[in-house]
Amino acid sequence: MSDTRRRVKVYTLNEDRQWDDRGTGHVSSTFVERLKGISLLVRAESDGSLLLESKISPNTAYQKQQDTLIVWSEADNYDLALSFQEKAGCDEIWEKICQVQGKDPALDITQDPIDESEEDHFEEIPETTHLVELPPCELGRLEEIADLVTSVLSSPIRREKLALALMSEGYIKKLLGLFRVCEDLDNREGLHHLYEIVRGVLFLNKAALFEVMFSDDCIMDVVGCLEYDPALVQPKRHREFLTKTAKFKEVIPITDSELRQKIHQTYRVQYIQDIILPTPSVFEENFLSTLTSFIFFNKVEIVSMLQEDEKFLTEVFAQLTDEATEESKRRELVNFVKEFCAFSQTLQPQNRDAFYKTLANLGILPALEIVMGMDDLQVRAAAIDIFSYLVEFSPSMVREFVMQEPQQTEDDVLLINVVIKQMICDSDPELGGAVQLMGLLRTLIDPENMLASTNKTEKTEFLSFFYKYCMHVLTAPLLANTAHDKNSKDHPEGSAKINPVCPDNFQTAQLLALILELLTFCVEHHTYHIKTYIMNKDLLRRVLVLMNSKHTFLALCALRFMRRIIGLKDEYYNRYIIKGNLFEPVINALLDNGTRYNLLNSAIIELFEFIKVEDIKSLIAHIVDNFYKALESIEYVQTFKGLKGRYEQEKDRQSQKLNRYRRDARSLDEDEELWFNDEDEDEDGEAVERRMDDDFSDSYEKFMEAKKGAANGANGANNAKSATIPPASPAVTSNTSSSSVKTVALPATPVVKTALVGLVDYPDDEDEEEEDEEEEQSPRKRPRLSS
After folding, report:
1. Do 157 and 127 meet the contact criterion of CB atoms below 8 Å apart?
2. What is the pLDDT of residues 606-654, one digit of tens each?
3. How far apart are CA 785 and CA 787, in angstroms?
4. What is the SS3 assignment for 109?
5. Is pTM, for the whole model, over 0.70?
6. Residue 470: what pLDDT?
7. 491: part of which helix (H) or strand (E)?
8. Rounded CA gap, 272 and 213, in Å?
9. Residue 618: Cβ within 10 Å count
10. Residue 210 · residue 291 · CB < 8 Å
11. What is the Cα–Cα distance from 295 to 299, expressed in whole angstroms?
12. pLDDT digits (tens, 9 = 90+) for 88-100
C-alpha cells in the first residue's frame, strides 16, 4: 500500500459544478464477486476504509486528462475523478480500464457518449452521427471551418465527434499555424474566423484539447486568436500584457521546472477564462466546466508541490521576519504568502486544515505580528488579508497562539493588541481596513465559535485573557475622547450641552462608532466580564457623553450600547444606572432634539417604551420621580404618560396591600371577647382545665402583649392623614409550633409593581391569603383548638 504510483485522491462533482475531495487512498483493480466484474477500489490511506468501489462498465465513457486524471460519470449528474500522484500509476489503471472495454490505451476517451435527448432523433439524422469530416486546414476554408465548429455546439453528440476529429488529425496546431500566417498578412477576415474557431473549440469543453491548446508552444497563439473579436474595432493586446506587463516574480527561486511551468500555465488559463472570454450566457454556462476543473486541479497541484517543499517555505518565512530584508523584498514575500493562502481556498476542508497547520508550524502568526506593525501600507494591507484567512479558517488556532504570548512578550506587542492598534490607526478616511479588522476581532471574541472546541475551558480562559490584556487598548480612544466631561450634572435639565472633547472629526467619530459596535457585541455575549469592566471603569457614563456629538450616527451608537444593557433586564445594571443618574444625558438629547421626527427621536422613545412594556419597576420609579416634569409635555406618544400611569398604579397597589394588614382596636376587642367565650365553653372538665392551666397563662400573657402592640399601631395609623407605609408591623409568634411563626410586616420600601389594568388578580394575593390562613392558627385561638 506504500506504492506512491497507486496513491490517488477521489473527487466527486457537486451540484455547483465544483469538485469535492472525498479523501486520499490507494487504488487497485480487482474482480468483485458482488458486482460480477473487474472494479476500481480505493482504500483510505488513513484507516483502510473503502472510499470508492466502482465496476468498470463496458459502456461507461472514461476520459484521461492531464496525464494524471481519470474522469467518468456513473449516473446522471454523478461525475467521479481519480487524481494520481504519479503519471505511471494513472497509465497503469488506464490500461486496465481499456483492457476491460477492449479499447486502445493510446486514446484519451474510451466511449462515444450519446445524449439521451438525442436518442429519439438518432434515426432522423444518421449523416451527422458518423465521423465529422473536417475541411482541409487552408486559408480559403477558414469560413467553412468556423461554420462547422459553431454549428456543432448545440449537439452533444456532434461536439464529441468534432473533438475526436480535431485530436486525431493534429488539427489544432495546423490552425494556429494559419493564425501566424493571417497575422503576418494582416488578413482581418481570416483572423475573425479564427477567433470564432478557437472560441468554439474551447466551448467543446474537452480536457484533451485543453492539454494541447494550453501547452507552452500553443497557448500564446490561442490568446492571439482571441484578440481578434469581430465585435471590436481594434484587437485587444492580451499577449502584450501577458509577456510585458505581467511579471513573474520569484521571491525565492523555484528550482522545480515542472512547478514553474504549472504556475505559468495556470495564470494564463485563468486570464483566458476571467478576462478574454466573454461571460457565458445561461445556455453556455456549462460549456466551460472542464476549463474550471482544469484550473482547479492545477491550483491543487501547485499548493501541494509548494507545501511539500519545506526548504522553500522555511526560507520564505525566514526572510519575511529578518530585519535585514529590504522593504521591496519583504513586500513581495508578503504578497506571495497572501496569494498562496488565496490558492488554498480551492482545497477541500481536510486538505486546507493540513495547509494551515503547515503554515502555523512554520511560524505564520509570529511573522504576521512583525509585519503588521511595519510602516509600509501595502505590506500591512497584505498582512491583514493573510490574518483574515487564518481567523476565518480557525479562530481557535489564533486564540491558542495569543494566549501563550504574555509569557514571552510585553502587552504592547501582543498580536491582538497589534491588530487593535492597526484598527485605531487606520489612515484610510473611510476606515476600510478598520472595518475589516473589527470583523476579525469580533470573530475572535465570539463565544459561539468557542463552543465546538475540544478544549472546554477555551471560552473562560480566552475572555479572561482578552479583558486583562487587550480591553484597555480597545477602549483607550473612547476614554480619551470622553475624559473631561466631569460637570455634566451641573448643566440645567434640558440644556444643550456642548462637550469640547466630543469628537467633531468624522474619521474619529467613525472609529468610536466601530469600538462601540464591538462593545455592544460584548454586552450581548460576554455577560460577566463586560459587566465587571463597565462597573469598574464607569464606562456607560463615558459612552453617554457621545450623545452630545454632532454626528447623529455616533449618538445612536452610544444609545444602542445603553439599550443593549437595559435589554438584559439585569438589576445590577439597573442599580448602576439609577445611582449614576445615567438617564439624564439621554433625556437631554431627546429634549435638545426638539420636535424633529428623526431616527434619534424614535430610538430614544423606543428605549422608554421597552422599559414600560417590560415593566422594569426600578427604572420606571427612577424616571418618573426624577424626570417626569421635563417629559410630561411630550404628548405625541403615550409612552411617558404610560410610565406615569404604571407608577401610580403601583403606588395604589402598595397602599391597598398595606390596608389589608392594618387592624383597628375594635377588631382586636371583638377577638378578645370571642376568645373569652371560647374559654368559658371549655370549663366542663376539671382534668382538661388542669391540663390547660400552664399553657393558658403563657398564651394569655403573649396575647395581651400582642394586643397592646397592635392597638398602638392601629391608633397611630388612624391618626395619620397620609397614606405612608409604616416601617414594620408587630410580629405575632407562638411558642407551641414553629410552623406558626409568621412576621406580618411590610418592607420598609415598596417593591414597585405596575399593571396595565387596575382590577387585576396579582400573584402576591395568593401569599396574602396564605398569611390570613396562618393567622387563623395564631396563639390567641390556640386554647380553643386544644380544648
Report:
1. no
2. 999 999 999 999 999 999 999 999 998 888 999 999 999 998 988 888 8
3. 6
4. strand
5. no
6. 93
7. none
8. 12
9. 15
10. yes
11. 6
12. 888 889 888 888 8
